[in-house]
Amino acid sequence: MEEFRSVQLEDSVESVRFEQDAVEAPGNLKLKRRLAGMEPFSNNSMQSSKESSKHSVVTEKDEAEDVSLRKVDFRSLRVITTSFEGENGRPSHFLSIADENAQRFTFESRNLSSPGDLQPNSPGRDLRSFIDRDQKEIELLATAQGRRFWAQQQILDRRPEYVTPVSLKIFSGTWNVGGSEPEADLSDWLSADNCDYDVFAIGIEEVQPLVGMGAMTTDSSKGRDWTAHIEKTLKTVGDYVCVCARQMVGILLLVFVRAKHENAVKGVMTTEVGTGFMYKGGNKGAIASRMQIYESTFCFVACHLAAHQENVSRRNQDFSEVLRRIVFTEEKAQYSNLSALLFANESTITIPDQDLVVWLGDLNYRLDLPLEDVVRSVEAEDWETLLKHDQLNQALKSAHGAFLNFKEGKISFPPTYKCNKHEVGYDVGTESQTPRTPAWTDRILWKIHEKYDEKTSTDSATDGAENFRLQFLAELDSYRRHEVFGSDHRPVSAVFNVTASKLDQDKRANVFSEIHRKLLPKLDLTPHRINLEMVQLGYHPVESTVLSNEGIVPVEFEVDLEEVPDWLTVEPVQGTLPAASVVKLSVTANLTRNSELFEDRGYSVNGLSSQAFPLTSKLKINVRNAFPKTLDVESAFLNCSFLGSSLETMLEQYPSEEEHLPEPLLLLCKLLSRLDPSKFDETTPREEISSIFINIPTLGESVDILSASALGICLLEIIRSMDGGLIFGDAAAEIQLCDVTNPAIVNKIIEYLPEPNRTVARKVFATFNSTFEGDLSAWEALASAATASTCSTQTRLTG
């Protein structure tokens, strides 16, 4: 690898835990194993690690160290950019990091396309941002509540994968029919453009005369007649289905959708609020219908506010009352998972909650000008002058006025009231009548949800498909008056081009499934099969495997102790692995004379002989919320009849020609004395040691091919396994403290031992002295073996 640049981190970065990065692909974890000395390293493997989609910081340790979580002070790190040529011939680049103690780390960067991408003044900030981001994600995923929040956020973030845009053309219209019968030709209003509208939202005011009881009660026959008349007109332009028809006294709200969209409409909720007589009467007020079309929500409000020039405050109050009192109480979760996620903490739905609100009706706002000035401006078509005195415009411009955050299209048509019922022109009254000033009383306003404001909608155009605000857009296409006679009002329409969201159920199910799988425990066991060296009394071989959490959530594991045979021990037996971390699992042979292996007749031996028997065991590692892992352990059991016996038992079963010396010990001492002096080597292969035990009756014939170290280790293991120990009591303590290379001192201590221990100890120490010629390592090993058995026995008995 070529070193391009070395820079010192200047940022003051606190010590952080670095080996908990939430990674999804196993590549980063394999890289950790390689740097920990558990797997070989290659360019190919580094290339595969680089292709993973996360950043990781890992440490290179000595093979003998445990792989565990550590802390690093990033204030002392140096960042080095390195590269190598990948399989495709293109260079791949990595960041290497080293601290003052020469610990080495590897930091992968998916965006580092060239060495120049790492600026000298930026690595500290970049490194901290990567670590802080991943650390926060790990901390979030460590709790059940955090995992739920993470899953919810992932589902929302991945909506572009299962939610696609769908274009809808919405026609909204309002007309105060003044209590007239449904006889007028509506084609100039509802079908003038021969346009394929997807939605019709129509508000009719005064479908019944608001006089006498007609101002207090609802005559539903009037609403049915007007509904049938409108449906008749719509049949001439397409196939439409009525999804909302609601009448409150004189107010009628109708919503039609094209038949092809019928199945996409759900969650229709309609309610009403009266603001008329005693602030409750239905002669004034509003009907609101909320619905979901595909995955976008709409609310259409048809209203009739307080009349008369001077009642501006009452109209503003009526609007506020409608906005406050209209509440859709059914649970949104019944209708849309997306809506439920967006408003999960709300128990009710209000008008502003919807993606698009269209507010239409006879709002009754007037012009604050004398009649003569209004008539003069109307004749001159000077709409700009008139609109400066429009009460609704003034309210829209006020920071605390009615219809806050609502918008209205540009008015470029004459006032819609007070018109002649059956001809062009205005009915402003005579000298004997109360004058009626023309005004734009019939209006249509709209409002999109605050998350779709203009600024963010404009910015989102370059943000790509992931931007949430691209899921809904609404633009006004036209806003105009229509010349339909029969009332002193003229109908008004506003057409909207809407980009809504369409849900693909199959794709959403796939996304949900992927997110769910990410939250499942992913524990890997490498290797899943280990081979222990030959198991025997006095020797405890150890092998290890690595448990790796390759998921993004913590994993709880526990070794099933009922499946662990009594000749094996496993550490640790349980624990919790943070995301993207590893732990070394040690398996140790811990054979004792009480082991069940010695009770099995299939493993028995006779006389001064030994035999090896194959051993297999399956260890089960239970994983919470996942299938258990199985570790296969293979070994062999070397059963030596004299191992683990007390000195007295050995003398009884294996007497020799010399008093107080059992045959196995005497044989090994004789063989050692026949060999030339040499150095003691504790790393002698186990195969040679096991071979000596198995062939001990015939060893005298092959002394020339035996090593002194192998024979010495066999002698030590017999002594170490000796029940009761060879040297015990005060003598054991003195042996451990004295100069064991001095025969005079050792013999003086040995004299305190009773027979037969004294004779055996004297023989063994003398043999070691002659064979290894004062080799300190041999003497220390002998002293340890001669006293360790005593200590372990006392500990076992005490326990």
UniProtKB/TrEMBL annotation:
Region annotation (Disordered) ranges: 1-20, 28-62
Biased composition, class Basic and acidic residues, residue ranges: 51-62
Record domain Inositol polyphosphate-related phosphatase: where: 166-504
InterPro entries noted in UniProt: Endo/exonu/phosph_ase_sf, Ig-like_fold, IP5, IPPc
Gene Ontology BP annotations: phosphatidylinositol dephosphorylation
GO terms, molecular function: phosphatidylinositol-4,5-bisphosphate 5-phosphatase activity
Protein name per UniProt: Inositol polyphosphate-related phosphatase domain-containing protein
Organism per entry: Rhodosorus marinus
